[in-house]
Amino acid sequence: MDETESLNRAIHEEVALFPYDTAWPALFEKERNRLLGLFSDEFLAIEHIGSTAVYGLSAKPIIDILAGVESMHQADDLLEPLCQAKYATSMEYNASLIERRWLMRWAEGRRTHHLHLMVYGSQEWNRRLAFRNYLRESSTLAQQYEVKKQQWAEEFTLDREAYTAAKGNFIQQTLKSASQPS
């Protein structure tokens, strides 16, 4: 499989969840170290987010990385250098995003990493970390999310955007509930 075919297959990859893999944290650390080695002065912080960052949770086997930058202008300036460092992105998709930029790495026709560039300490940055932390701290919440993700993966196997939207609604409700006084 050539690189173009591999990228095309990764872009159109079906939604499939896999049991938690204890290698996921190490894969994150390896990519984090690679990014810091290549862009030592660009990132204010790099965090492991998403389901692969929550012990025991099934996930699409894609390492989600949150990289903090000083501004969205800086994020935009990093897109080309990151693409030269084995990432790919869609400028059209990124143009639709307000508070982040998105890139992916792939190998052998499947996605391996998603990189989300955001302003460090912004509301969206804090929101993403808060949801990860809630899942890590509450096995009940993690189990509820697990059940829902399995349902959405079955329902939206061929529609990655619908799967992501369904998760977004759950995340939004969780964060709203958590911010309300008991």
Automatic annotation (TrEMBL):
Q: Which N-terminal stretch is annotated as signal sequence?
A: none
The protein's superkingdom reads Bacteria
Q: Which Pfam families match?
A: GrpB
Q: Which InterPro entries match?
A: GrpB/CoaE, NT_sf
PANTHER family given in the database record: GRPB DOMAIN PROTEIN (AFU_ORTHOLOGUE AFUA_1G01530) (PTHR34822), GRPB FAMILY PROTEIN (PTHR34822:SF1)
From the Swiss-Prot or TrEMBL record, give the protein name.
GrpB family protein
Species name: Vreelandella sedimenti
